[in-house]
């Protein structure tokens, strides 16, 4: 059978699925004789050609408008899955989970492909090892294993995989920035940039910015991996292990077991290493979707304006409340043997910005003074090709993404809820949006959700399936994945803002 017919047949089958299953997708995509695709066509051209040639076979053309919209979304997801498979020789679990949101998945894959494989100042083996270093800060074995394979495929020196002591001095010099960006980005300043660009093994500014983008990408991607409970790939160590509380009805790779902690516990009691955030008391139980909708409606109808001084007080109140969500216990720093060689100074962890010490030394980061739109975007574009265009589209897609649903309800304006999540995430990193009333955060985000967001942002390696299950209980899994996408993007933007500001100050 020709490749076009196979593609059309697979698309026809997938159009009838409720979600994209791991087994189905693996069988369909692995059956495509990709070596027979004409060199005169791109992969996407071949797929589109197949769809056009077999249009009559697609049931989506005979469906209602609502069904057509949904089926087109599924087809778009499948096209992206095929592209991802042809690019990476695998359909990894992160891609499958993000498949809930094909519009976002498209720009995510284009961005990740560009920073790892596109034109750029850093050698390809450096790019993948920097990704390993970044994932190591959160002990994310899933990403480390994927990037180790890619590193070797790019001709990387296998000796480097023995640990940080075996890598070139130039890469070792990057580790301080890696550590600071991952946990306390507000500590980054122009002296860190200057240190990299001076001396024998110096970096160019373009290389520094490329490395910063890679670090921020994989720090935040680790948050997504743990926040969604993405399992190891089947060909990785632990890929065939399944633990208790399996969610049999979820898409492949999604929460079939607890996210990996170091070490991975079956229950909280069995692992003295993991310091948990406080459990949710009965008084902290979530309100329902209906109540949340009423709160959003009330806020939209409110005409009261607050002074700038009052807005600052509300920001500081939310900031201090976030600090109270910490466990108050000193976290232990045991690191798994196969990850430890990529981790230096494991005791350096997130510290609440509100408890950073002398306020005058590290003031709040005001977006009105240095923003992505007005400053970061143009700087990163100038120093690293046009990556700013991709990053900008990715940020905006995650922030603006909506299907106008919330749980089982339709035609819902979720913009206030999304903005509260985004601004709360950046608040934890000391970033304040002067035009935002942070009082909305406490009205729209329950304490349990704020605790989950904080853990996913700041201590992602500690997230368990229990944490995932106890928040947003009336929401669909796709909506929970969307929340984790916002964690990924808001955190990445926060890291980039601090890093690019430091670069700008060094340049001036």
Automatic annotation (TrEMBL):
Keywords, comma-separated and alphabetical: Cytoplasm, Oxidoreductase
GO MF terms held by the record: L-leucine binding; oxidoreductase activity, acting on peroxide as acceptor
Signal peptide: none
Polar residues compositional bias, start-end: 246-261
SUPFAM superfamilies from the UniProt entry: AhpD-like (SSF69118)
Catalysed conversion reaction: a hydroperoxide + L-cysteinyl-[protein] = S-hydroxy-L-cysteinyl-[protein] + an alcohol
GO CC aspect terms: cytoplasm; nucleus
GO terms under biological process: cellular response to L-leucine; cellular response to leucine starvation; negative regulation of TORC1 signaling; positive regulation of macroautophagy; regulation of response to reactive oxygen species
Superkingdom of origin organism: Eukaryota
Presence of keyword Cytoplasm: yes
Annotated region described as Disordered, given as residue ranges: 244-270
Gene3D superfamilies named among the record's database cross-references: AhpD-like
Compartment list: Cytoplasm
Family recorded in the similarity comment: Belongs to the sestrin family.
Protein name: Uncharacterized protein
Species, as recorded: Timema genevievae
